[in-house]
Amino acid sequence: MQKIDIYLLKTIKDNVCIFPVSLECLNLNEDNLQGEIIKNLGANSQNQGLFSEVPNNLKLIGSSIKGDLLTLNFDIGIDHYGGTQREYGMIKQILYSMKQINGVDRVMFLVDGEVKDLMEGTDISKPIPIPSNINDIVDI
Length: 140
Known about the structure:
- By secondary structure, the chain is an alpha+beta fold.
- 17% of the residues lie in helices and 31% in strands.
- A four-stranded mixed sheet has the order 3-4-5-6, with helices on one face.
- Helix 2 (84-98) links the parallel strand 4 and strand 5.
């Protein structure tokens, strides 16, 4: 058994924060790591108030790593979830969860092999850097 970390969301005092959750996976290897991460993000476990914005029907149909760039190719189902906050949360969860892949600093999202904007307007036409900080605190 090997461990992976997925990042789930939790609402705390009207703020949505992201938290790592470690899972054990059977038969995990470098070739299926990204797929296992996406599959587990879509499981939508309601464990201890944690939730996922990643739809359970989201399918990763391919991935590749070139230098520090991870390219994830999703099926068209990535367009069927609804809501700006959900879209933002989904992208955030995927980015943080892919941080565990050695040498990867950026993620490029493709839909059916093409560069597209997401349904709520998130620009995924260029690689997105993986954030270095989690749950930044801003004083108001």
